[in-house]
Amino acid sequence: MAGKGGMDKAKGKAKEMTGKVTGDRETEIEGKLDEARGEAKKATGKTREHIEETGRSAKRDRT
Questions:
Q1: What's the pTM?
Q2: How far apart are CA 22 and CA 3, in angstroms?
Q3: Which helix (H) or strand (E) holds 44?
């Protein structure tokens, strides 16, 4: 799952921490947004995998 949002999440966490340490609120918020983007990609990937598996299972059931 690392490719499905993991990098955005890690980048966001680093950016958020950098913002906190430097007192740069904008960078901190950008980091939180990147983390949220990573979580959304991860959820989208899981949903897509579930849909694909359901489709494969339905095909097997019909044959």
A1: 0.72
A2: 29
A3: helix 25-62
